[in-house]
UniProtKB/TrEMBL annotation:
It comes from Amycolatopsis endophytica. This is Alkaline phosphatase D. It is an enzyme of class 3 (hydrolase). InterPro entries: Metallo-depent_PP-like, PhoD-like_MPP, PhoD-like_sf, PhoD_N, Phospholipid_Metab_Enz, TAT_signal. Pfam families: PhoD, PhoD_N. GO terms for molecular function: alkaline phosphatase activity.
Amino acid sequence: MSDRSPTRRQVLIAGSATLGVAAVSGWGTASASPVREPFTLGVASGDPLPDGVVLWTRLAPDPLAADGLGGMPSRIVPVEWQVATDERFRHVVRAGAEIARPESAHTVHAEVSGLRAGAEYFYRFRTGNQISPVGRTKTAPRPGARLDRFSFAFASCQNYPEGFYTAHRHLAEEDLDLVAFLGDYIYEGVGTSKIGRSHTPAAEIFTLADYRVRLAQYKGDADLQAAHAAFPWAVVFDDHEVENNWAGDISQPDTEPDQDPAVFRQRRAQAFQAYWEHMPLRRAQHPSGPDIRIHRRLTFGDLVDLHLLDTRQYRDDQVAGDARLDPSRTILGARQKEWLLRNLAGRTARWNVLAQQVFFAQRDFTSGTADSFSDDAWDNYYVERNLVRERLARASNPVVITGDVHASYVADVKADFEDPSSATVATELVGTSITSGGDGTDQNAGDAVQLAENPHIKFINRKRGYVRNTITRDSWTADYRIVDYVTRTGAPIQDRARFVIEDGRAGAQQA
Ligand SMILES: [Fe+2]
């Protein structure tokens, strides 16, 4: 990758930019493009640092081609990129070129550096005479530098056959510094629907080609593209990027050939490869066979530390009954656990966020003295959850943000979940799905039981949407933004609830 400053000539001619037209603004005369309309999957940026971001696109004139190669020839193709301080690219401050390779499905991951901290930029790509749509992004404020306000949204679970991405269209209109996506970006299963958004291919996916086609199908959605183009994203996967409820090397119990862990690891390798290719992730996250390091920390001034976790790859298999109490059980794995506890014990920002996949607080689903818990959440890793909770309690303003359950929740993380009078030591904010589960309802029949059995749970709602968070030195305001329906297009966005966490006082209060 080259990373050169624009020449004076490039800067001077940048004034004539007309978006979408070749041979403008800082780029020399274009040669004929080797492909027509390659930018069908939009652009994205991600993992902002104080001096740069990673820029993403893919060349895919035929994104659903069954071989997963997007209709591209099997040879390398150069792709140029530009970063400017203005939308019309009059002031290009960085430019460079990447090689899009067939072995990475002609995806581009340009790690731009040399930018100013906490600043807004615009970016675009060119190959031949074809220019991509323009994306907007923002670098992170310098770690430790005083920051008075940070705004981000988190979202998860966007099953394509179950609804339209109306929530993403509204998300794109927000004023945000970041979007965190907490998993289930795709679903691996068979999906047919009545709304004309069936899965391609129309079968459960196992191969690299199939995962690529599935990701390309999702990324072909204009509303999702708008949300990517509007803000940098920080992504982690959950289960469905690979397979429902997988755990470490263990496939979910079913009849497929991947019940052999060696076969499942091959499937995982192909799923991770396709996932990395299609996400705005840095090379540090590039998978090595069946292994990927997705857990990482992003820091925003002295205000926010975002610890992005991986609760799938290193976990022990799900167990039934009291086996969940086994103290040797892990959901984070030894290395990630040590990394997280070290982070939390060190010098941190004012707000410490665990951005992760599955429900952290206790959730008893059964009335009366009997109890039952999800085997796919932190309740199934009881001792490790308690350890993380204890360390969280000592950190500055701990907030856990969660996806997975296709419902909005707000929960107090109690020092002892069995004792409602025990201290509240952290706050959990759970985001609903973008589409998974279809239109949804405000609450279902089981929610009254959950609220009664778990007095630390303060809010449940099962409409679709996302959570918008405004963080200041004094407070964290979480707005639960929902749409009334996703099986038709055009639903307006509504505020269903607002919760506020005050600095120095764990637990959210409804405003
Ligand atoms: Fe999901």
